[in-house]
Amino acid sequence: MIFQKYKESLLKLAFFLMFILLLFPSNIKPLVIGFFAVIVINFIYFERLKFDVKYFIINGAIYLLLILSLIYTDDIAYSFKKFESMASLLIFPFLFSFLSRFPLKIYKNIDRFLFYFILSVALLNITFFLMIWLGEEAAFKNVIKHYVFLIDNNILNNYNIHPIYMSIDVCLAIIFCMYLITNKTSAKFTSLLILILGVLFFFLFILSKKGPIISLALVTVVYFFIKTEMKYKIFFLLSMVVFFFVIFSSQTSKDHFYEILNVKDIRKGEITSSNIRYTIYKCSFDLFKKEPLLGYGVGDANNELIKSYKDISSKLFYDRYNSHNQYLSFLLRIGLIGLILILASFFFLFSKGIKNSNYLFLMVFSFYLLEMFTENILERQDGVIFYSFFVSLLQVYNKSKIET
Predict the structure, then answer these.
(1) What value does the mean pLDDT of the chain take?
(2) Nearby residues of 176 by Cβ (< 8 Å), 6 or more positions away
(3) Rg of the chain, C-alpha, whole Å
(4) Which of 34, 36, 39 is nearest to 7 (CA)?
(5) Is 79 within 8 Å of 53 (Cβ atoms)?
(6) pLDDT exceeds cutoff 60 at 196
(7) CA dist list (Å): 106 to 54, 60, 227
(8) How many CB atoms lie within 10 A of CB 245?
(9) Which whole number is the average pLDDT over 53-74?
């Protein structure tokens, strides 16, 4: 059969397309994921791979618990919309639960695939930047100033992306760069990675999103001072000093970070991103206290949160802000019981990563866990696809390394 003959090549192509998924327009991305799923399912069939139930339950825990909340939620239509946008939380754990015990040949080329992702992030940002600069004939400093707003306004059809999620992708690319640099790559490849790293830091600076920057800093500090040699620690320290010097030399960026030190309810202070989050968190906690054990269900939680804004802030109410904290979202949707079960699955994955010295997985997973404190990253396709794909893949990849 044709697939039997070319199964390794097709699987390699499927993984390649997933790693460069950012380069596809939003209406094509589901087709790429569908192609990946079809190829993997065929591979599973021809290799007669067995299903790893434990792997699936632990990695699919979030989605499975949300499904259970259908029992007590009222807004079924909205529930299924959420299930559709969060489908990656089920698809990738299901597919990789068959691959978890099979040493795929493509894992030998994982560094190359990571580089493809790095390139895709850099190329997409460079393309956006040049289109704004040259297409609009705008001054360079104005492009830097307004880049964060313009990338979410259809520069290209079906390519708009929220700046928070672009920042997250840039941070992932930086993590992959640092991992590759510290893992005995050639001098030429290291030089290329350092050059790309400079480009990525430039875009992280002009996006200037506090949450991803702080999460990245915390993760890389721990990695570099536990894992790497002294020369890399010095390189990292200098890079971080230069980056934060540049950040705080910009008045706009400096103001973004300083607002954290003066957080207030938006009824008493300015309408800043930090004050908005503070007010949302207060509303979320007040709502949680009314249904602490099981929450309001996947369909009703956000509606209840929006209702609670009505007497507090017209901006929050009419703009329909979500909880801006994934853990709070879990509390509102599936209650304390659901959150505890999810945290238990996170703890299992984290402890397993430590046991296996799976540094790449630990960096990526820790970054996402930190980022969940400021964003509902698992409830938008821009965030959940790469979370589920990388967290599922990097567990399997490390296991394969150990076994071979």
Answers:
(1) 88
(2) 114, 115, 117, 118, 360
(3) 22
(4) 39
(5) no
(6) yes
(7) 24, 24, 25
(8) 9
(9) 96
Pick the more confident residue, 63 or 238: 63
Residue found by looking up tokens 């984290």 in the block: 350
Residues sharing a CB contact under 8 Å with residue 42, sequence separation 6 or more, in sequence order: 3, 7, 10
pLDDT of residue 21: 98
Q: What is the pLDDT of residue 401?
A: 56
Task: Kindly report the pTM of this predicted structure.
Answer: 0.92
Q: State the Cα–Cα distance between residues 20 and 15, nearest whole angstrom.
A: 9
Whether the CB-CB separation of 203 and 125 falls below 8 Å is answered with: yes
pLDDT tens, residue by residue, 11-50:
999 999 999 999 999 999 999 999 999 999 999 998 899 9
Residue 336 pLDDT class (50, 70, 90 cuts):
very high
Alpha helix locations (H) across 182-250? Answer: 187-207, 210-226, 230-249
pLDDT of residue 368: 98
Q: Tell me the C-alpha to C-alpha distance, in Å, between residue 23 and each of 37, 126, 153, 299.
A: 19, 12, 17, 32
Helix and strand tally (H, E) in the chain?
Answer: 19, 0
The CA distance from 315 to 309, in Å, is 9
- Amino acid 354 reads I
- Kindly report the number of other CB atoms within 10 A of residue 236's CB atom: 19
The set of residues, in sequence order, having a beta carbon less than 8 Å from that of 364 and lying 6+ positions away, is 172, 175, 390, 391, 394
Say which DSSP state 160 is in.
Answer: -
DSSP string covering 285-318, please?
HHHHTTSTTT-S-TTTHHHHHHHHHTTT-HHHHH
CA torsion angle 70 72 76 78 (round to 10): -90
C-alpha distances in angstroms, 84 versus 87, 91, 247, 385? 5, 11, 38, 12
Which residue in the block uniquely carries the two structure tokens 């046991």?
355
